[in-house]
Design a protein that fits this description.
- By secondary structure, the protein is of the alpha/beta class.
- The chain folds into 4 domains: 221 residues, Rossmann fold, CATH 3.40.50.300; 83 residues, Elongation Factor Tu (Ef-tu), domain 3, CATH 2.40.30; 106 residues, Translation factors (Elongation Factor Tu (Ef-tu), domain 3), CATH 2.40.30.10; 168 residues, 3-Layer(aba) Sandwich (Rossmann fold), CATH 3.40.50.
- It binds guanosine-5'-triphosphate and magnesium ion.
Length: 608
Amino acid sequence: MGAESFDRELISNEEIADLNITEHMNIAITGHVDHGKSTILGRLLVDTDSLPIGKLEQVKETCQRNSKPFEYAFLLDSLKDEQSQGITIDSCRIFFKTAKRKYIIIDNPGHIEFLKNMVTGASRAEAALLVIDAAEGIKENTKRHSYLLSMLGIKQMAVLINKMDLVDYSQDVFNAIVQELCEFLEQFEQRPTIFIPVSGLNGDNIVKRSPHLSWYKGKTVLEQLDDFVIDKPPEDKPFRMPVQDVYKFTKHGDNRRIIAGMVESGTITVGERVVFYPSSKSSVVKSIEGFNAVPLTTVGPGWALGFTTEEQIYVKRGECAGLANEQHPIVGTRILAHIFWLGKAPLKKEKSYLLKIGTKKVKMSLAEIRFNMDASNLDHNTKNQVDRNEVAEVVLELDQPIAFDLPHEITQTSRFVIVDDFEITGGGIIVNAIANQVPLIEDQINRRITQWERSSIDIQQRFEKYGQKSVMLLMIGDDFSKKNIAKMVERQLFADGKFVYYLGIDTDGNKFETDTNISSISNDETRIQQLAEMASFLLDAGLILIATASGLTPEHLEILKIALSPEKIRTIWVGSERDTDIDVDMQFTSNDDIDEFVHKIEQLVITV
Ligand code: GTP
Ligand code: MG
């Protein structure tokens, strides 16, 4: 296996190995422009002896030569320059270590325009440092950033009240800022871990205690860093691995497929049954293909992982792997989310966007705004759109189901970004699922998968033998001739040597929607679930299944997609008037030629 194929979006083997040797922690540093983030970081590097030898002297010398006063912030600039080789980078990672652990500090530039980096960059942080200039006090971005941190679920936050030298190290100034920020954050039930008075310039309370701040008895910045609790994606949480890629071997009769990704939480062991969400496909882990020379049998969080399965299953990038005997992720198409909007154009209802969670991208639209506020003053407003730099609680509707968790359970799989026109225009966290019927059917399928003995002939072998891919042709529409057409298509495909089966699910002539039975809704669901169950067997057997249904809603189709996976379903609208929100793959009207139509379907079943 070429190692290069795994490198995409993943860190290198050496890096992984290195990071796994000792504890490491990601910290985001934020604050208003010029409040002193870079100075504090520069100080931290100098006072912990983390700089490359001669770096400090070199920067001081350059300053002298250009007759400008030395700034600790220049140290970071010079490191950034070296790292990026002249390319401007807008978010910088700084590495240093203490006796306790390694740190990666993500320095986010303070300007509003760069909040984007916060949404993406800080989303990996386990703790944060929020810097406030004691002389200037709390600013717009202080509030924005602190709110954003709490929204992203970053619970550990040290507030560094900096430039204490400019306010004569006054305890009153310090206390006033502490009080103001606490009042602000209380609205979101957020409590900073600690407030530390510091001077980045003089190095007070960064690594060394300060005689100027004798009234402060708490920890220094460095002590606090080491005291942050690491939120290692814990091993004891359910296993989650968003599928990054599936690698297929073709040489020397090797037909293994390696399913690869980064483990976000939990552990996986050879012999365990994995389930992929949202498709609910499942198999047993046969081997774990680590990147080390020694093959591994168990892999935990933070590892790039590849594994093979006992049976050939066809999963794609974007699915999320879990274990059959652990808590499942939630699967749904409607989510309640807290978002932060960065786009120049507002987030609007009429428009379609992309939502990216883990490795999955789906189309999404805004269904509802529950509340909406300006992130700087947190004034509520009742607009019908979310403007730039606003925070909102929204309901998002997705065109395909996604698998996710709630932030208090597994943070990593609850975060997402929104992409509009190839740019990240927003980010957020899923706070709840809006009920849909997906979990029920998913449970049924899982039970079937885990309890029933399955055939050893896989779908690929059937395809090769029959010369057809199994697909469900779902004929919808209110044209009464639909069933006749379906049967004609069946006969013709049959005559052409295809393995085909017709099933009408509204045999009594009742349309789903006009059924007057009191329990009509549950009847509809039951019927769709029955169809889904039956169809999954028939498709598994390699058949082309033709089904007719009236009054099919997008939710019904969703259930079918979950049960059978979207690529196995083709919707065909029979009739000329199309009055459905369902995306239709084909249409057949009374003017169309049936032979031509069947020909199109035949093309489809060999290329699906
Ligand atoms: P951006 O990256 O532009 O957002 O700024 P920043 O937050 O990184 O601030 P930076 O560290 O560049 O500091 C801004 C200015 O404040 C510089 O001129 C620093 O020398 C000064 N400064 C930083 N910390 C202190 C301090 O503790 N005391 C005093 N007096 N000045 C400070
Ligand atoms: Mg800076």
